[in-house]
Design a protein that fits this description.
Layout: H1 2-40, E1 44-51, E2 58-62, E3 72-76, E4 83-93
Antiparallel strand pairs: 1-2, 1-4, 3-4
The chain binds zinc ion.
Amino acid sequence: MLISVDLYTTLIPVIVTVLTVAVLFYAVSRDLRNVLAVSGVRRISEYVTLRCPTCGYVKVREFKVGDYVGKVDDEKCPNDGSSLVIIGIGKEQANA
Ligand SMILES: [Zn+2]
């Protein structure tokens, strides 16, 4: 009885600690990715082509970390409000 109670009273702080560390690690790695993204996009500008699957509206915008072909973007079509889909990713040399 005593042993099982001790197990729970020590287990809960351990779980809380592990969760806190995991959340901190997640936050730090996200910041790190943003820093890398900002420093990496300076020289070569990458762009993505977005297309509306409903009406065919096409738009080009700057590449963001996590973009990939086939991804449903956060951006909406100005014509019908459908989510735009990434149909292509390209690179462009600055001052070329
Ligand atoms: Zn549309």
